[in-house]
Amino acid sequence: MKKLILAFLCLGLLSVFAQNPLQKITTKLQTKLLSESQSDRFLIWVYLSDKGNNLESYLANPQSVVSQKSLDRRANIFHRSEELLNFSDLPVNQNYVNELIQNGFELKQKSKWFNAVSGYANRNLINQIAEKQFVNKIDVVGAFAKRTDDIELQRTEILNDNPLQPEGTHTLNYGSSFTQVNLINVPAVHDSGYNGTGVTICVLDAGFDNLPHEAFDNMNIIATWDFVNGDPNVGNESDMGEGSHGTATLSIIGGFKEGQLIGPAYGANFILAKTENTDSETPVEEDNWVAGLEWADSIGVDVTSTSLGYIDYDNPLDSYTWEDMDGNTAIITIAGDLAVAKGIVVVNSAGNEGYNSTHNTLGAPADGDSIIAIGAVTSSGTRTSFSSVGPSADGRIKPDLMAMGSNVYHADSFGDQYWSGGGTSYSCPLVAGVCALILQKNPALTPMEVLQLLRSTASLSNNPNNEYGWGIIDALDAVNLIPVPVELTSFNAIYVDGKVNLEWLTATETNNFGFEVQRRDDASAYETIGFIAGNGTTTNRVTYNYTDSDLYSGKYYYRLKQIDYDGSFEYSSEVLVDITHLSDFKLFQNYPNPFNPTTKIKFYSPQQSHVKIGLFDILGNQVKSLFDKEVETGVYEIEIDGSDLASGMYFVKMYAKGIQQVVKISLIK
Fold first, then answer.
1. What average pLDDT score do residues 197-209 get?
2. Does residue 75 share a domain with residue 181?
3. Per the CB 3.0–4.6 Å rule, which of 25, 181, 373, 629 could disulfide with 399?
4. Are residues 464 and 498 in the same domain?
């Protein structure tokens, strides 16, 4: 996670000095107010300065805020059972909301993560709201309009050019869906007994108009909510929005009808959120999606699948442009990255805007650095012409991964019929379903570890690009690469003075004989280069180290083969050391992260130089100077003490020889 900005609006944000009300209204909203009619209503975000008093009762009773399943997920990720809530999890102050409503504000959604509410107000009311002491900022709600070349909702006749499933090859009969799941090696994972059982998936889409379809007969749907109309019915009613799109994507990820269609995660639990209003000229409004994501988190979601995200290039006052696809601008991108920080795997369509030689064609939130953006390929593995490309505006490779998004078989809106269609909308749920298979095998994996597993086993893992990302996923290889659930909690490699120092940490150990250290380069397979004995059986964390000095310039990949006394073994995830690139300054990720109240962070200096390191808040203000010295070549470690800071996301920035490096850290009290 490289440039994640989290909206932790912490206690005490009210300034000592009175803020000019006009300064609370963003430039974007001021421009819009000047350009439109006095009588117009505007859809706005109202960001609040605090969450009021008496917040300790929420922290003392976490289940009053989120479910036990959500707390269990966070405990898995954070490896502890306390302090699993922070300020962003606490509800918006209802007294503030009531006062806004009494003044005429038409409430649409509430966001506890951003400590904000969305709704409608005219120009006069916006000015009145800006006068209120508890209001920190007012901005436009971002809107996303479908392009005319969007093919997400096209219904096409079933094409019969896909190969049939060979008889007797797998335990299940996938019917016409065989090609789309076989391309990513899902049937072999199903044969091993994994189908997503115990994992909760939230599908955020335009609605689900045919849940009585036979493909959903065995699906365990545990919660539904229509965020467009504010009711639990996510199908078609006499209200806003039409739901054929959600029906299709839901069936692709988890439908089950032998001989017709079987999705990767047919054994999972499902949460359905209708967030897109297809009746509107701007069918995707970010506040609906943010509200849906927060709701899913409170229930205890593990994976989200979203086949939405568009850019309107015609009116930049209302919407985002390709330049905003930098991972830090769109509210839904920030929300998605925040969900990842809370332990949720967020999977999103990359978009259907095709190739552009001058800039990216992504749609938020696919630009997020922690969000898994999915492009589309044909049944032969060739990128479809409509699949959006990167890089993100800040230069990161996007999309992340690929799956079949052309002629994908899915449930239809009429009776028990089936159709096939195209779009990254259909490749996204295939990958999200595989994420559920991975988490079924090891629920303790973090979202970034899931992403790394998929990247390291995809078809272009060694040579990613901005059309295919890391390539077509391989579900079987990813599942087989999963480390032992109770063993490794971290595995790192650092190159210093001609040596690679490997360090790994175990949470607990059971029947642990030891670890084979294995290495490969781009031209060779893995070979064992050393063995580190285990500590047998212990309930304590154990740190292991190994030094590799037999090196040349180039890329080296390391993994661990953890062996038990009974001869069984599992492989760890893979770490890469690129020696040709380590002539640069490097700021490493802190550990532990999240932390409370202290953490340690290392940096590497390739030469004698003056190094300055500072700690900054999400607004870019330096809150601490951490290091300001002349150093020699080598690795240095400093401690960060957050005991005097509020919970939230911070940035550590290192400056040396005109080079800047940034790492995000999370303080959770």
1. 92
2. no
3. 373
4. no
Q: Which residues pair with 422 in a beta bridge?
A: none
Identify the CA nearest to 302 among candidates 393, 436, 496. 436
Domain that holds residue 566: 488-581
Tokens for 315, please give them.
């009116």
Show contacts of 76-79: CB within 8 Å, 24+ apart.
76/343, 76/443, 76/444, 77/342, 77/343, 77/444, 77/446, 78/343, 78/594, 78/668, 79/489, 79/507
C-alpha pair distances (Å), 135 with each of 34, 130, 305? 21, 6, 33
Kindly report the number of other CB atoms within 10 A of residue 394's CB atom. 14
Spatial separation of the C-alpha atoms in residues 486 and 508, rounded to whole Å: 6
pLDDT digit string (tens) for 387-446?
999 999 999 999 999 999 999 999 998 899 999 988 999 999 999 999 999 999 888 788
pLDDT band for position 536 (cuts 50, 70, 90):
low
Nearest by Cα to 626 from 606, 649, 598, 605: 598
| Half-sphere exposure of residue 148: CA atoms within 13 angstroms, side-chain side | 1
Please, which pLDDT band fits residue 1 given cuts at 50, 70 and 90?
Answer: very low
Question: Which residue from 402, 339, 386, 403 is spatially nearest to 365, judged by alpha carbons?
Answer: 339
d(CA 382, CA 311): 25
What pLDDT does 162 receive?
54
CB 108 within 8 A of CB 43: yes
Give the dihedral sign, CA 481/427/3/52: negative
Residues 322 and 457 grouped into a single domain: yes
| Separation of alpha carbons 145 and 124, rounded Å | 27
Measured over the CA atoms of residue 189, residue 190, residue 194 and residue 197, the dihedral's sign is: positive
Give the sign of the dihedral formed by CA 291, CA 296, CA 297, CA 303: negative
Q: Which of 151-160, 355-364, 411-420, 504-513 has the lowest mean pLDDT?
A: 151-160
Token code pair at residue 641: 């003490």
DSSP 383: B
Q: Please give the mean pLDDT across all residues of the chain.
A: 83
What is the domain-level CATH number for residue 263? 3.40.50.200
The DSSP H or E segment spanning 100 is helix 94-102
Q: Read off the pTM.
A: 0.69
